[in-house]
């Protein structure tokens, strides 16, 4: 196994210093050319599209939740709750991510409100993610600096399979983290990422989470049924399968340590239903290159810059197949990159030499 297979992906390890020495930390990234006036239009925030999206999400949750409620006690509950859990998990996670950026609503407090609510629904604290995600966008797939690299090279298959249903979190990681924060403690990585001025918010978020979920658990005992948790909390686990697959397509199999989002982020086309559930995060290269563009403007942004980017995967299944095939190859060759992205990188390099 070569040296690339043995890299330390921790943001507190030796790769961090190497990334700094190589000029990869907090560096300048390539951005596709786009007229200034057009970019100003695309970054404009509007309340109406965001409000409409939230309304449709609540309707989808209510409809699928009602079907699941009617099915409770029968075998139909399995597919019904699988559907509800998928709508709950994929939408909550993608909206949590988007509203954490503060871009959908023009009114700032509305973005924060949705961010905090969705954080509660998926049991991942808002303050934690806000600062880890800032680093993810600043140093996207820079080994030793990006805390959100989903898998190292070669991949850890056992961990990947566990992530399909957040098994480790369900077995206690989430509770451990919440109790630790509730008692005012942080781990070393959190101390590296989160400013001390934000510790108080992190601690109070954990305490509120624990109080609210304690109330839901108490309700379960009161009604002698796990049903309340089946609607709030547990869907973030039993409905997480599709979200893990979507997350995998974002960066896996692509380049590491490149200051060009076209080489480390994957865009794919998909149907309107999945785009709605995923809050347009299938336009992932566009989102990383211009993170201040609201999700409802990403399709238009894609049209503006697509000629300067690798071709989008034609569908979600195609993107997932490409990702899984790449992971399978990377298990033996940690330097492997999806061929069409390597070809695109070679073309960029040739164009730069010819300029």
Structure, briefly:
This protein has 355 residues and is mostly helical. The chain is built from 19 helices and no strands.
Folded structure, characterized:
With 355 residues, the protein is an all-alpha fold. Mean pLDDT is 95; it is low at 1-5. The chain has one domain (3-173, 230-354). It has helices at residues 14-21, 36-43, 47-71, 77-100, 108-122, 126-138, 157-163, 167-182, 188-193, 199-223, 227-231, 235-238, 241-251, 261-264, 272-277, 284-289, 298-305, 316-330, 339-354.
Oligomer: single chain
Task: Work out the number of β strands.
Answer: 0
Structural class: mainly alpha
Number of helices: 19
- The gross shape turns out to be globular
Largest β sheet strand count, sense and barrel closure: none
How much helix is in the residues?
55-70%
Mean pLDDT score: 95
- Tell me what portion of residues adopts beta-strand conformation: under 5%
The tally of structural domains comes to: 1
GO molecular function, one term: oxidoreductase activity, acting on paired donors, with oxidation of a pair of donors resulting in the reduction of molecular oxygen to two molecules of water
Transmembrane segments: 54-78, 113-131, 208-231
Organism: Paenibacillus montanisoli
Pfam families: FA_desaturase
